[in-house]
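User: Working on a comparison across species. This one is Heat shock protein 70 from Strongylus vulgaris. Can you predict its structure so I can line it up against the others?
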Amino acid sequence: VSPVAKIRKLFGGYLRNSISFLNFLGNRITPSYVAFASDTGERMIGDAAKNQLTINPENTVFDAKRLIGRDYNDKTVQHDIPLWPFKIVDKNNKPHVSLNVGKDKKQFTPEEISAMVLGKMKEIAESYLGKEVKHAVVTVPAYFNDAQRQATKDAGTIAGLNVVRIINEPTAAAIAYGLDKKEGERNILVFDLGGGTFDVSMLTIDNGVFEVLATNGDTHLGGEDFDQRVMEYFIKLYKKKTGKDLRKDKRSVQKLRREVEKAKRALSTQHQVKVEVESIMDGEDFSETLTRAKFEELNMDLFRATLKPVQKVLEDSDLKK
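Assistant: Here's the predicted structure for Heat shock protein 70 from Strongylus vulgaris:
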């Protein structure tokens, strides 16, 4: 979950001219998931799509942010393709998502998938406000390049929005936190470790005026990478104990993904959790303990990888810790 969303949740009531509202299921955060029912072709977005990931993984799309604005032969795209349950095809060196929509096979660009999510947010906002929403400011990872930014803007256009500006997510977080603070000049470091991307920005805030001093990050580092490490650990452990490879069944992998994500969140407040999946493969149940220490061990290099951008931002902004 992006700190942008968290900060808006925590401080939204104090922001001048700000609004905070829930989606149709009563949640503040809508997952960036899109799915199509394999039988009827019905489209689902957000929570509904994520909830059916384990029963229809081939037609459930996520991580569009890791595809948008990239070429098919991009090394990060090629790295991720084997990890996704949905199929990626090459069209003119651009990645397209191939899905079964009812009885038909259809291909979608990452921009079209993102547009579906933005369209859902537009619908939620219009339901809350009681009027049409035409304009939007869209946030992107600070380290997105020009192609990724333009592709994101194109997604907004497809969704029927006039994207008046693309701004960096750490900047948006600082704005959300600092708009009502008037005590003179301050330096703020925003550490934004999201689901799929990581950004660090140093900003100066002086009486409501924001200046970005330095930005750094990694467009391919986020919570999903931490989840993947734990999943790989359990997949190897399960194979060692049973001789069975969970990777051969996409549903099994997605069941494990769901429970690993829950466990990761629980470890924020607990020292150990049980990761349990009913009938993970061939009717057998899965049950293993995950400790916070083991989670940190599996991901130590990823944690350390977040420190380099912080140091670089401090150096580039000419500020000391």
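For your comparison, note: Residues 237 and 288 are 9 Å apart (CA to CA).

User: Helpful, thanks.
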